[in-house]
Amino acid sequence: MLQLTGIKKNFGPVTVLRGVDLQVRAGEVHALLGENGAGKSTLMKILCGIVTPDAGEIRIDGQACRFASYHEAIAAGVGVVFQEFSLIPYLDAVDNMFLARELRSSFGLLQRAAMKRRAAQIIAQLGVEIPLEVPVCKLSVAQQQFVEIAKALALDARILVLDEPTATLTPGEVEHLFKVMRGLREQGVAIIFISHHLEEIFEICDRISVLRDGAYIGTCAVSEVDQARLVEMMVGRRIENCFPPKPAAAPEGEVVLEVQALQLKRNGPVSRFQLRRGEILGFAGLVGSGRTETVLAMLGAHPAVQCKLSMHGVPLRFADPAQALQAGIGLLPESRKEQGLITSFPILHNISLNNYGKYRAGGLFLDRRREAEATRIAMQRVRVKAPDAHARVDTLSGGNQQKVVIARWINHNMQVLIFDEPTRGIDVGAKAEIYQLMREFTAQGYSIIMISSELPEVVGMSDRVCVFKGGGIVATVEGDAVTAEEIMTHATTGRLHHAA
Amino acid sequence: MQHEANTLGSAPVRASSQARWRALIHSPLALPLVGLVVVSLLMGLASDNFFTVSNWLNVLRQVSIVGILAVGMTFVILTGGIDLSVGAAMALAGTLSAGLIVNSGLPAPVALLAGIALAVGIGLLNGALVAWGRMPAIIVTLATMGVARGVGLIYSGGYPISGLPGWISWFGVGRIGMIPVPVILMLVVYALAWVLLQRTPFGRHVYAIGGNEMAARLSGVKTTRIKLAVYAISGFTSGLAAIILTGRLMSGQPNAGVGFELDAIAAVVLGGTAIAGGRGLVVGTLIGAVLLGILNNGLNLMGINPYLQDIIRGVIILLAIYIAREWR
Description:
The complex is a heterodimer.
Chain A: E1 2-11, E2 14-24, E3 29-33, H1 40-47, E4 55-60, E5 63-65, H2 70-75, E6 78-81, H3 93-97, H4 112-126, H5 141-154, E7 159-163, H6 171-186, E8 190-194, H7 198-204, E9 207-212, E10 215-221, H8 227-235, E11 255-263, E12 270-276, E13 280-285, H9 291-299, E14 306-311, E15 314-316, H10 321-327, E16 329-332, H11 336-340, H12 347-352, E17 360-361, E18 365-366, H13 368-382, H14 398-410, E19 416-420, H15 428-443, E20 447-451, H16 455-461, E21 464-469, E22 472-478, H17 484-493
Parallel strand pairs in A: 3-8, 3-9, 6-7, 7-8, 13-20, 13-21, 16-19, 19-20
Antiparallel strand pairs in A: 1-2, 1-4, 4-5, 9-10, 11-12, 11-14, 14-15, 17-18, 21-22
Helix pairs in contact in A: 4-5, 13-14
Chain B: H1 17-26, H2 30-46, H3 53-78, H4 86-102, H5 108-131, H6 137-156, E1 161-162, H7 169-173, E2 175-176, E3 179-180, H8 181-199, H9 201-218, H10 223-249, E4 251-252, H11 260-270, H12 282-301, H13 306-327
Antiparallel strand pairs in B: 1-4, 2-3
Helix pairs in contact in B: 2-12, 3-8, 3-10, 3-11, 3-12, 4-5, 4-6, 4-10, 5-6, 5-10, 8-9, 9-10, 11-12
């Protein structure tokens, strides 16, 4: 029914999809599986016309299609329920389902009653109960999910893409969702189901296609494979020679930072870990598993139910990142543009941003000569390539931008550096340089926490790894146990330690 | 455009003249300056009296109050905020000072300082509600604007408070040499603001918050404290403006300065400061304020109907913003 062949896509220098094939039959639930960044989301965005492919062909019922926009894809019968819902929070379910395709009378007025009848019909077909005239933001997450699905069905979708629909649902709600999916399957709808939870895939899906690093690995029937085989397909074997060698034995250094108890949500899991001097501690896990929130909560930049931590045995509490900075903890945030850089500032001011205490002349004023000198040294130390320190940061490549944010922190007497997705969106050469820098830092006595969604990176760089799932740490692995398979298994099937 | 070559290390190369030209064109001051020159020339053509020293000093004197308010406004807008309360805070500060002198018999210098202190207090209140209360600046300052007006009217019973000692008029209409005192005050305020914004860590943090508040916060900038400070500065400039206003009117008038906050915002925006914050120069605000003053002055010299003047000013502001957007 749906046939994708040879789909390719580059974003700038980064290849996201390198010739992906996918065939989905009518009346089947087809799982699309792969690590973070394997290309699943991009492939789905191509399918629904949000992203245009560089090469390749989409056929629906044998007919070649080129979608220039989401609207054209909808017209061809493709419905997508994205991870972030596309509902308008203050409109009710009926208005959301008919958004931009409202039924109108001949006077151009809304035909509210007709829309409501049709909406009720579709929702009843799903076998769920949803109050139709309540703003959707008042509904539970599961109900919103069903409104999304109903919206796709209201558009007569014959191909339904569900992007991690179960991530935020309770087991009971998941069960109901599966019932609805089975019902739709019987009506001949083709469903593409994206999930990281292998058990779910075995429960609901008929066939599985696996992507890895933007390449198509294979398709098989659920009955033919087991979990171990799937993990192997997802992880594969990769060249890992761009990582600098790890120090021979992980140093049993003193504990610099200890988190005794960190709980993000009421009744949520409680995490604890130690960070030793001169080590790289990897934070692995799937997107949304709570890694970034955990480090932000440590720094006082994210709410937490409880957060007990100490440095060198002294209990501390940070109300905001400024206090963490004084204690010697610095963060390289996940998103350079939104959280890292002041894009309207030149390199100089971006690096010196949190260092002004050091460049004072006469108490109040900036000592600009010392600022320029210190910045020049910092830039040399992390090897920022730029014409001069006055270049605007938005003219730099991603790798150099990242180095600018790193340089901001090594200007200080820092002890702990937190790198959140340090190599996202930068090219291979710059990646290798950043890995090299991280090892130089640990050799100088810094301790590093590295959050990464790229398994090879976690395995190649970390001395120890904390694996996250569902908002907390499910396992900590070290030494020879730091393997992609081990981490992936914990991240997809690990059990949480809940608060006593 | 990616700079890949030239690892840093050698002394920075002197900017070529071409690069300097480009820097000039892309400077946020370029457009306001062009606007100032063009409008001046037009006014000069229309009126013989325009290009005289006395007329220019007159223009500067006329813009001094809005010009000083616009300094505080520049700080606030650079952080991405807005302060609608400046006109009302100024009127309240002036009314309080006059009342303390005339009704309570306080020494005039103490009363004037009390007016400034009150204006700073209003600024601190705005800042606290925006920074700690996390409320939108436009709503907070709209509310405090109303409150300040109301308090002023109650305090004065709605009537101007006159009977001030004669020397206070020096602030409004006095001269040092041939230069009006309010002009000197305004230029001093601009000089101080320039130093604060360009030469101190505080100034950098102001720009950083407007450029990317999240990034500034995550890198350890004390964002709440800085935001509190910019509203306090805006209150302080309102208090200063109140002294000039009081000197000019020789009374405390609770209804003075209505709409001045909008003129101050217009001056900031015409001066090339981004309304979303992060970009702009206080010198630009001065140019913007003078530009507005020239428009008023020139249109008056030409004898144009005041109602029509409002329309012309509005159209010119729209035009300026449009050109500025196309320019980038």
